[in-house]
Amino acid sequence: MANKLVIIDTDCGIDDAQAIMMALAAPNLEVLAVTCVFGNATVENVCQNILRVLSVCDRQGIPVFQGSAGPLVGVNWSPFSDHFGGDGLGDVLEDKDPQWKEKIQQEHAVNAMIRLASKYENQVSLVALGPLTNLALAIRLDPRFPQKLGELFIMGGNMEGKGNVTVCAEFNFAMDPESAYVVLEEFICPTYLTTWEYCCRNALTWEFFEELVNQDFPAARFMKAVTSKCWAYSKEAMKNKRDVYFGPGFVSYDSYAMAACVDGSTVLESIECPVRVELQGSMSRGMLVLDRTKSLKKSHAVRVMSKCNVKKFGRLLMESLKQPWRK
């Protein structure tokens, strides 16, 4: 069987790094490109973070493209440094690469997406792990872009109005609600949503996390370093954050979307229905609405994941940090 061709669109924070490592470890995936978008950090930091991850896994041959530096609409955007640190990787890595710009492709990320989807029409799986700005721009430049994709996996949005950066909205959608709206209205390719609640309700234990990052491989040592001072990976900090809604557990958000792409059997149950992103609400802007009664009269639906095979997911995570493979 031929490998699944994948483009990863990311705002590379710590959980994005974990998801990318999962893709690199998957024997059935061929990563065509990594495209960068603002979000967990500035797009310049995101590019550098991707280069670090590829270097740690000894996969520097994968091309990296710089994309959108801010949302589709609005100004004065600043990175959400409260979560994964100012650089997106926990602010613990001191060895900056002064020549990183020379290692980034000259082509813009959106143009690269369109080119690759056109070259491999209906064969590319696009995994979107950050704000959806690059995807929204792609359909504006090429209205047939979604039709050229084989499938789309999105980590973002929510099912129940529980938010993690605002009262009602999840981070990726809150960072660029207009782009999320455009993508979920206009992308008619098979689309799979990994929501915030799906990730949190299918958490792993903190004991699993300790075992995960204490493996004797470069990728595991890297992950242990970048999570070492990050409150988002602290059991104590989470007691007043995520645990209020979902109870204790270790959650690698973006990895759930990647796992669904790597192995569809990690998703045990999903809800198929139309969805829409709220743009106007004073408290609910960026919130995802599931239209299970078909009130919106939309012509297409998406699959919203609801139950995960946590054991399979855990195995994929564990394997992802055994990189590079010992010879």
Q: What report would you give on this structure?
A:
The protein has 327 residues and is α/β, with parallel strands linked by helices. The chain has a single domain, classed as Ribonucleoside hydrolase-like (Inosine-uridine Nucleoside N-ribohydrolase, Chain A, Alpha-Beta Complex), CATH 3.90.245.10. 37% of the residues lie in helices and 17% in strands. It has an eight-stranded mixed beta sheet, sandwiched between helices. Strands 8-9 form a two-stranded antiparallel sheet. Helix 1 crosses helix 15 and helix 5 packs across helix 8. The longest helix has 14 residues. The chain is globular, with a radius of gyration of 18 Å.
The pLDDT mean sits at 92
Instruction: Count the DSSP helices.
Output: 15
For this structure, what is the CATH class?
Alpha Beta
- How many angstroms separate the termini? 25 Å
* Alpha-beta content class: alpha/beta
**Low-confidence region ranges:** none
Percent strand equals 15-25%
What spatial form do the alpha-carbon principal axes imply?
A: globular
Number of domains: 1
How many beta-strand runs?
Answer: 10
What is the H-and-E element order? EHEHEHHEHHEHHEHHHHHHEEEEH
CATH architecture: Alpha-Beta Complex
- The rounded Rg comes to 18 Å
Major β-sheet annotation: 8 strands, mixed
Tell me the CATH topology.
Inosine-uridine Nucleoside N-ribohydrolase, Chain A
Report helical residue fraction: 25-40%
Classified in CATH, the superfamily is Ribonucleoside hydrolase-like
